[in-house]
């Protein structure tokens, strides 16, 4: 049975007045105490217990102990930049057509949120080459990747405008302010019919990207925006949560057409 051990990561959840969950991502250590607004939690107590168990704080409040999944990590990772949220990352992966074992390039590592999702999907037999111009971003991303024990990513400190080193790549993901500047190289480095997927916060960027993508030889160009509205439900009513992530960005996708 998969029991909780020392040094495991655990997601502890305590509930506020209106049933709102407050989440704590912790490393389990004997003797370590977590202090929350609902009392303290002795982490020694959960060692040897089953995942999904329920314990109590020092004030007798309920604490759920969950085994963290990828989205839990993404919510809590250190950030050096804006990140791509799971709602967008999941859609981008599906629309890229990539499969475990593929070779993928990412331009704009940032904090590594999309990097984590891509690397997790590609698996041990896959390879992700991720470029960033800023050392600070790469350092943050490296720390975040280490949290998950991800080892199929090659982080590259390089301006992608100076060239993409890999060729015959299955897909290229771009999260930089001006992807249109490098679409000619992206086209050259993709395998036949390979897709690019660009994440862009503004309509002006979308337009420039689409026009350039047509010019350099991408077909089946699509533009999407993904909206995710969370709901809350109790004995009295079910309704949209008062807060939502209003706008993240647009996703532009194109598939390489061979120049004949
Ligand atoms: C918004 S962040 C990417 C966030 C990332 N997708 C995530 O989910 O954490 C954009 C990153 O692109 C990098 N960048 C901008 N222009 C670049 C270029 N020409 N080549 C490589 N990286 C670039 C920036 O340094 C920044 O870290």
Q: What molecules are bound to this protein? A: S-adenosylmethionine
Approximate helicity band? 10-25%
Number of helices: 6
CATH homologous superfamily of the largest domain? Vaccinia Virus protein VP39
> How many extended strands?
15
Mean pLDDT: 96
- List the helices and strands in order: EEEEEEHHEHEHEEHEHEEEE
- How do the strands line up in the largest sheet? 9-8-7-10-11-15-12
CATH fold topology of the largest domain: Rossmann fold
Q: What does the oligomeric state look like here?
A: single chain
Strand content: 25-35%
- N-C termini distance: 58 Å
**Largest sheet descriptor:** 7 strands, mixed
Q: Low-confidence stretches at least 5 residues in length (pLDDT < 50)?
A: none
What is the number of independent domains?
2
Shape: elongated
- What class would the helix/strand composition place it in? alpha/beta
Please state the CA-atom Rg, rounded to the nearest Å: 21 Å
List the helices and strands and how they pair.
Blueprint: E1 9-15, E2 21-27, E3 33-36, E4 39-42, E5 54-56, E6 62-66, H1 70-76, H2 86-96, E7 103-107, H3 113-122, E8 127-132, H4 135-147, E9 153-157, E10 171-174, H5 183-189, E11 195-200, H6 203-216, E12 218-225, E13 231-233, E14 238-240, E15 250-256
Parallel strand pairs: 7-8, 7-10, 8-9, 10-11
Antiparallel strand pairs: 1-2, 1-6, 3-4, 5-6, 11-15, 12-15, 13-14
Helix pairs in contact: 2-3
S-adenosylmethionine binds at residues 81-84, 107-108, 110-114, 131-134, 137, 159-161, 175-176.
């Amino acid at each position: 049975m998969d029991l909780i051990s020392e040094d495991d990561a655990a997601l502890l959840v305590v509930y506020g007045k209106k049933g709102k969950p407050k989440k704590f991502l912790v490393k389990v250590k004997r003797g370590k105490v977590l202090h929350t607004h609902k009392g303290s939690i002795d982490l020694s107590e959960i060692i040897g217990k089953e995942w999904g168990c329920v314990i109590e704080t020092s004030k007798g409040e309920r604490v759920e102990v969950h085994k963290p999944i990828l989205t839990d990590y993404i919510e809590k990772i250190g950030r050096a930049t804006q990140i791509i949220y799971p709602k967008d990352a999941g859609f981008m992966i599906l629309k890229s057509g990539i499969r475990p074992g593929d070779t993928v390039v990412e331009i704009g590592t940032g904090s590594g949120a999309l990097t984590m999702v891509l690397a997790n999907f590609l698996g041990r037999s896959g390879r992700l080459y991720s470029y960033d111009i800023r050392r600070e971003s790469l350092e943050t991303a490296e720390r975040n990747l280490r949290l998950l024990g991800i080892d199929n990513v090659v982080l590259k400190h390089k301006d992608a405008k100076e060239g993409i080193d890999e060729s015959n790549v299955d897909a290229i993901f771009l999260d930089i302010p001006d992807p249109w500047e490098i679409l000619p190289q992206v086209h050259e480095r993709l395998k036949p019919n390979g897709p690019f997927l660009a994440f862009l916060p503004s309509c002006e960027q979308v337009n420039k990207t689409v026009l350039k993508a047509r010019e350099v030889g991408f077909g089946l160009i699509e533009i999407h925006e993904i909206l995710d509205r969370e709901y809350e439900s109790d004995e009295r009513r079910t309704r949209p949560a008062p807060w939502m992530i209003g706008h993240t960005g647009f996703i532009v996708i194109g598939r390489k057409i061979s120049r004949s």
